[in-house]
Amino acid sequence: MSRTILVGTRKGLFLLREDDDDGYALDAPLLAGWEVLHAVRDPRDGTLFACTNSFVHGGQLHRSTDDGETWEIAEGLGLPEESGLTLGKTWHVEPGLASQPGVVWLGAEPACLFRSVDGGATFTPVQALLEHPTRDRWQPGAGGLICHSVTLDPEDPERLYVGISAAGVFRTEDGGESWAPANKGTAADFMPDDPYPDVGQCVHKVHVHPGNSERLWQQNHCGVYRSDDRGESWERLDGNGLPSDFGFGLGLHPGDPDVAYVIPERGAANRVTTDDRLGVYKTTNAGASWTLEADGLPEPAWSVILREGMDFDAFGVAFGTQSGFVYARPHDGPWVEAARHLPPVLSVSLSA
Amino acid sequence: MAVLRLTGLLAQETGARRLEVEAATLEDALRALPTPQLVLDEHGALRPLVHVYVEGAREKDLGAPLQRNAEVILIAAIAGGRDP
């Protein structure tokens, strides 16, 4: 089946279209000149969304209903005057469930979430997260105080999760009206007085499994974790085959909730892939053990993959590097180089 | 009427380098852009790296009145390099 890899870069959005020879065709970028921190194709109706950022023109969201021929910029992306806050970068756009046509979520800086009910034309801020009682204990990570993960319960449209650096994971069960921290068991080693606080964790990426709403996976600044109870508690999964507990990209397998992929980096002080190679590690047993999956990847290599730099679907996984390479593979098969010499890759997203 | 001259990403997004708008003040002129959010933030403030020149002189006051046919140039202030 032919698919497209949406690659957000520092200099626009590239669409890599799979061709008949297991390769990918590359066209000139869309949204040239914009930093695209994340982009997706809405599986409900094919609309393209891109989190577009410019240090001159701010954080925006572009949407296209004609496959990138023409674009509109969303309205309403801003924070209320009384919050004393001003919108920074836009980080993650998440189309709602098929049962909620028109709903689109957008995570942004500073630690804010927006909701659209008109297909992404206009947005309003989610007030309860903006006014969260623990907000004064949230600290910005290296990328700022950012809401970078928005992940939906596949069955219950009222339940979703956000990941905020460095505040942790928060869950709502009422469509965003209230939010509870979901960080029990996840470490914040950089807080020596309380390494297991209720909030303040530096989550790097969190996903609900798309076929099992009980199960979540998380790549954190301090470890890799799995939850089997909707984020009520987390089990740490590194130290059993992973060369490092630090990383950003996180991939899953929609057909098998025990499968996950991570790309370990040396650590917070040296954010580059481990062991002088580009190594993706896979577990097939819910994190009990991990194996190196590097067939088709370059060695030696010193690569950097950002938090939105990896994605997955039913067919496989893909990721992109800060040196402008994109790799893709089926869940059981070697990696294929899908593109090279792109601008630094900020995000990768698979679409049918 | 005022004449807006657009550059860079703003021209790309607007699809024009020149736009005629009805405007009594600078703010009127900026709000008449198809995408005013690129130059004004959500609180109505001019984005700090969007520099505005009215009839050739830097203008920071959004309330500044515009003369008939005033030329308003919008430039993205691109900085680069680092101190030696």
Question: Overview of this structure, please?
Answer:
The complex is a heterodimer of chains A (about 350) and B (about 80). With about 350 residues, chain A is mostly beta strands. In chain A, about 0% of the residues lie in helices and about 45% in strands. In chain A, strands 20, 21, 22, 23 and 24 form a five-stranded antiparallel beta sheet that branches. In chain A, strands 3-2-1-29 form a four-stranded antiparallel beta sheet, with no helix packed on it. The longest helix of chain A is centred in the middle third of the chain and has 4 residues, at about 125-130. The radius of gyration of chain A is 19 Å and the shape is globular. Chain B has about 80 residues and is an alpha+beta fold. Chain B has a single domain (about 1-75), classed as Beta-grasp domain (Ubiquitin-like (UB roll), Roll), CATH 3.10.20.30. In chain B, about 15% of the residues lie in helices and about 25% in strands. Chain B contains two helices and five strands, in the order E-H-E-H-E-E-E. Chain B has a five-stranded mixed beta sheet with strand order 2-1-5-3-4. Chain B is globular, with a radius of gyration of 13 Å. Classes of the chains: A mainly beta (about 350), B alpha+beta (about 80). Chains A and B meet through loops of A and helix 1 of B.
